[in-house]
Design a protein that fits this description.
Blueprint lengths: L1 H13 L15 H21 L2 H5 L1 E4 L6 E4 H25 L5 H7 L8
Antiparallel strand pairs: 1-2
């Protein structure tokens, strides 16, 4: 679901057809899912990397048919970030239930080297 959504949302922000033709919700197995989310992240990373202020303020269609409206590309990409964070939060809950430390917590708990004056 997240990989499908990232491809669709970043393609909308970029103003192009979704390059992904696979339904990752039908994928099974860890390897297939890791491949899917990696591909989606790489695609979206290229969209974010190419962004500039002017481009982010340009509008693109959001929605279908009569319900479509023009919104800034920045709003579409903000929605993508929000959606990804929502699902990461869901995963964190499952990780903690299973006695695992989420990567974001692990990074926050890792001591940082002290700076020498």
């Amino acid at each position: 679901h997240v990989a499908n959504a990232q491809f669709a949302t970043c393609a909308r922000a970029k103003g192009e057809a979704n390059p992904n033709k696979e339904d990752f919700e039908k994928a099974s197995g860890k390897a297939a899912l890791v491949k899917a989310i990696t591909a989606a992240n790489e695609y979206c990373a290229s969209v974010y990397a190419a962004a500039n202020d002017k481009w982010m303020l340009e509008t693109v269609a959001q929605g279908q048919g009569a319900n479509a409206r023009q919104v800034p590309r920045a709003a579409v990409l903000a929605q993508n970030t929000s959606h990804a964070n929502e699902h990461y939060g869901n995963l964190v809950t499952y990780m903690r239930i299973n006695g695992l430390v989420p990567p974001s917590t692990e990074r926050a708990q890792t001591p940082r080297p002290t700076q020498q004056p």
